[in-house]
Amino acid sequence: MIGSPLLIHIKKRARQIIGATMGSRYAVLGVNCAHDASACLVVDGRVVSAVAAERITRRKHDDGFSQRAVDYCLDAAGLTATDLDMVVINQMPWKTAIEHADRNCLCDNCFPDKVINPSHHLLHAHYAFHSSPFDESAIFVTDGSGYAYGEYARGCPEHLGPPVDYDLWEAESCYLFADDRIEVIDKSWGAWKEMTERRFRFPSLGHMYSLASQYIFGTWIAAGKTMALAAYGRPNRYDFEIVEKKDGRLRVDTDWILRFKNPNRWDNPRNVEEYQDIAFKVQEELESALMYKLNWLHDKTGSKNLCMSGGVALNILANRKIMRETPFENLHVTPAATDAGTAVGAAFYAYSKVTGRPPVRLDTDFLGREYDDAEISEAIATQGLEPSESIDDPAAAAAQDIAEGRIVGWFQGRSEFGPRALGNRSILCDPRRGDMKDHLNRCVKHREPFRPFAASVLEHRVSDVFDLDRPSPYMLLVATMREGWAERAPAVLHRDMSTRIQTVSVESNLMFHRLIERFDALTGCPMVLNTSFNDRGEPIVDTPVDAIRCFLGTRMDTLVMGGHVIRKMLVPGSFDFRKTVPVLHETVRVDSLWSSSLFGLSSDRWTVRRDFKDPMWIGPQGFHILSMINGRMTAGEIADAVARTFKRASVGTMETLLDWQDRGFLYMTLAIRGRRRAVQAATLSVMS
């Protein structure tokens, strides 16, 4: 036990009494235990650190209480659990809280001042308002759902609106925030429908979208894919209404999905057309519902400002319509609009509770760790790579590589908290290349070919290139290119001719701004293509080791970390890869053995996967190749051994190894001065 409850209580009470007259330090913690688990530490009203658990565990959308996320934040300030004045927890069921009581920092003995489960939407709202530049604002929170009224009534019955049945859950919430005043304008509650065909149904805008995502892609956490796919759909394909709009309320039909009978079957082109049309339909319904509700909210509040949070707020197409078709003059969307952001809202809520004062405005999403030169050097050495080149101007070096056609992994400063890479954990390349989008999707991100990429553009030049007249620092607005630019930067253009925009200023990110500025000087193009530094199924990288592993497991060409540059050896297609040494990615695992018998013939197959990606099936020959990849045998030696065993030409083995390299299961290396250097075939744009 950290200390006796009495001593801890006396220590905290003394600090509170002294603080009333001398301004002593107050430290509070917000914790999200739902999906996208996270933690946030606020000291003296300022966010010191915030992190999503997935960045540490490497499990995307990781959920539950994360001690590692809590420790990450406390370590950033040099604090321990006993230094905290209050902890506010989002979605910690009471049974789970009790189970944690004897083994971690949530115990009652450590925290006499602990608040469990304030309104989920209220925490979203606190984050939205206190990360905005506004003194007063209407707040709209919309996501899949909050939690049950009964859970709130038992834990923290604050700002819930009129009482409702204990079994009803939050659907949408409207507030008016002004300094320390919070007014509930409207709350919608709903009941879960019975499970049908493995799909839960709930009457909210977010769940409508998640239901479509689950039907199309097999998972409810694919809303971004559904939004991208909507650009390929056809209007007026379905004449039914999903969202009824009446008397200022939204009534979402939860049975609409039962009309469709071909879930997640991409092998049939007819199904693909249906998926595209469904995506278009739910996007259209979402935008129509938001326009109706937000016009109503403006009438009720009269505010010129709007803040939004909750997963639906990440829908950039809807955000564009909000700016164009509602009376609100100013829009702020939280960069971490998913449930991860509730940890920040919880910490802000806690600080206001402890001190009676509002927190300091949050104006950045760079809330994670920064790594110094020694830590980066150690990571490079640990991975056994050739010593990197040290440079004085990383931004200029990266801009030069991008201008020459290379794909650059960019790792600088503190990591982003939200799901968008904003120039500190990014993969960057040249938006002028027409073939770059397909290459990135196929060989770097290993994802669907219809997925678009964003543009990071110099803030003072954004209106020269796009029909956008305001900053978009968190990549949450979309715009159309002005005449002549679509041909100049096709790699960031989506099917509907839109582009997701991040504006970059000297104030928001000095190093990234310098990189784009330098690229503009080299090419006359004031933007770069920017996508998150991760592979399919992985969270964004957080540590130097994460970055190196992702770099080696994809077809990126250059890695810039701090002042260190690592470049793969780019060789022409005629290069003899037999002399290279294949190395399996650290996260590759053989999951299972499957045997079948057909017409008396037996066949063995294995599933091989990397991290949480889709498995790859291999037969006996593939397994034999896999078993010989030991970091010492050359590709030629492996190919010859396979040819002797299976009496087949070794060329097939070489094709297999290069295919596995493209898939990210391995990388090819050459030994240089006792260290490995990754080797890959260059794209024509780099070699020319």
Molecular structure report:
This protein has 688 residues and is an alpha+beta fold. It folds into 4 domains: 5-125 and 344-355, Nucleotidyltransferase, domain 5; 132-333, Nucleotidyltransferase, domain 5; 373-567, Carbamoyltransferase, C-terminal domain (DHBP synthase), CATH 3.90.870.20; 577-687, Outer Surface Protein A, domain 3. The protein has 22 helices and 30 strands. The strands form 7 sheets. Strands 15-23-22-16-17-21-18-20-19 form a 9-stranded mixed sheet, sandwiched between helices. Strands 3-2-1-4-5 form a 5-stranded mixed sheet. A 5-stranded mixed sheet has the order 8-7-6-13-14. Helix 4 links the parallel strand 4 (86-90) and strand 5. Helix 5 (120-130) crosses helix 11 (342-355) and helix 13 (394-403) runs parallel beside helix 17 (510-523). The protein is globular, with a radius of gyration of 26 Å. The relative contact order is 0.09.
